[in-house]
Amino acid sequence: MTDAPLISVRGEAVLEAEPEIARLSVHVQSQESDRRTALDRLTERNRQCLDLVGSYGDAVEKVETGGVSIAPVLKYRRREGDVRGYRGTVWIKIAVTDFAVLGELVARLGDLERTYVNGPEWELRRDSEVYERAARQAAHEAVARARGYAEALGARLTGLVELSDEGVGRTPDAPVALAAAYGGRMDGAEEPEPIDLEPETQIVRAAVVARFTATAPDLEPR
């Protein structure tokens, strides 16, 4: 154990950055009186949705199926009854990196029959350099703050005892529903107008706690 004075500080950094990914959640549905017909309709609409997304090429980084369900729709909700029909749902998750086509893609997805679009959720990549930059700035802030305290006491820093990372993360935001369509576009109708979407600024926060050794302070009155 050292008898040298210790200075403990907390360093923080808050950065603003443009998002790198926009995530969309798309639910494609069918509802028919016959189970097989509901499944066939769902398969067809799912393929239409995937073909549309695939037509955007590298602008879409990833497409995933989040889940599929086929369930009976009963006539009575509070007790067992005759089956009125069957409802099918496919959940598709889409990651878009080219924001120039995002508004058009959202509008065209929302124009598909029995399709619900939720998003976008703006994000940074997990390995984005913004997180590293925020962590470095938080560490620099800790050193500067500790040095300022030491100078105020007539001392100087001599070493680092401990540096604890409190974490780096993005301030979360609630997703917003953008479009819903259950009728579908009539054959021969024009394509829908793109929706104007402005990327949401991402707020990245980082914090560290650091302990430094220092020379003996000069506590004589001045």
UniProtKB/TrEMBL annotation:
Pfam families: SIMPL. It comes from Actinomadura monticuli. It comes from the Bacteria. The lineage of its organism: Bacteria, Bacillati, Actinomycetota, Actinomycetes, Streptosporangiales. This is SIMPL domain-containing protein. Gene3D superfamilies: Protein of unknown function (DUF541), domain 1 (3.30.110.170), Protein of unknown function (DUF541), domain 2 (3.30.70.2970).
